[in-house]
Amino acid sequence: xxxxxxxxxxxxxxxxxGIVLPPGKSRSDFFARISAIAKYDAVHVVDQTGxxxxxxxxxxxxxxxxSGAAPLPSMMRTEPRAWTTQGSxxxxxxxxxxxxxxxxxxxxxIALAFAPAIIRFLPVWTNPGFxxxxxxxxxxxxxxxLASSVYGGIGDGDGRRYxxxxxxxxxxxxxxxxxxxxxxxxLDELNAFSGGATAAAKRKAYxxxxxQLADGINRTRYGDRRGRQHSLCxxxxxxxxxxxxxxxxxxxxxxxxxxxLLTINADAGADLGIFDFVPAGFPDTKSLIxxxxxxxxxxxxxxxRPYLQHLVDEAAEDxxxxxxxxxxWSKEFLDRAGLTKASGSEFRTASQFALVYAAGRLAQSYxxxxxxxxxxxxxxxxxxxxxxxxxxALGGPQDMILAYKALPGILSDTTFTAxxxxxxxxxxxxxxxxxxxxxxxxxxxxxxxxxxxxxxxLKAVGIAVCEPGTLQTKRSIEGKQVxxxxxxxxxx
Length: 492
Known about the structure:
single chain; 492 residues; alpha/beta; 18 helices
């Protein structure tokens, strides 16, 4: 929200949105008439997307106001080609959201699209950022486009495209921040970022732009005493993770960046890229992707507007109730992650996933997302995947298995059923001098991208207990010998 109190401060703002006063006498006359005005009333002007008092400004120049409330004066630069609306919410739900039921990664990124608007009521310590990392063909760009369809076009050959690319500079990122305040900023292909001619210069540019996105602050502009701050969420795609790109930087910088851009493996573990399974009615993932893209191309921008209308209405009618409801959902997620009373980096990270969970639940309550979606398991699966990816990137195989050992859902009972074992990440069995983590092979493969390589590395250092010539051993479960992965941790 900006207060324009003098013409000299309004002039550059007018120029930014394309209103340029002609030179010569007419310009002088204009300023003379302005100077003759003795008193100026402060006016709250909408000059960027997002929350402004009780209304929410969207990028096509429109405003979502509580029912019966008037919009605010606006001098915002619009992006009509990005914020296009086509089709209907009903068709978007049927053709895009419904076929994604049970697909953990696509469900997560779509729930993320609704999260930026509620940061006002459920604050997080930084602008939440997530990166989908995977090789070419995993479908990570498709996931980004599906999330973009919540707001606008997916760029299916017609130029109407909400998502942006990393093919920009640090300075170019400022314009994107202005146009995505309280909204999702989708950025495709981190590897295309124009960071610098040398590897060191590019690493420096990567860290600079990441802190700019995380803090949401651009450079000081004319008429501003300090750089403007933007609250938003951002979603990135890349062939390699940012942590890998930053190798060679100071370790503290790498650790700080890893808390600000949270890595999620774009491979769901079923050899189907971002998908967990091929839904009934589709012969393969290509036909599924074609269907989803066609549905998003025909129906986009139809989800965010009704969501925002419900949100601004509820905020106006019962702000305390809305805040309490969102806080309750956040706590519910943190409880399930076992982190309600935690602090530090892990709690800050989990809080960003909790925000996505709360946004998904809110969108469901508004009828914008399907009721059959199970947002909790989807977000939790991505959170678990992130913890494992981060532990491997910053440490190594031993750090990764220790992170796995601490996952939510690990059983600790000495007696358990075969069904409970198969459904869990694993079982921690305590012996006199050591602990054993017993994991079903399918459970490990579903959570770790290259579980075979991990077990081989842990076998070499004596942590993985394996029968000769294999990567598994046998343990008795309900009286039957079952092949499992077994990891032994000696007590100090």
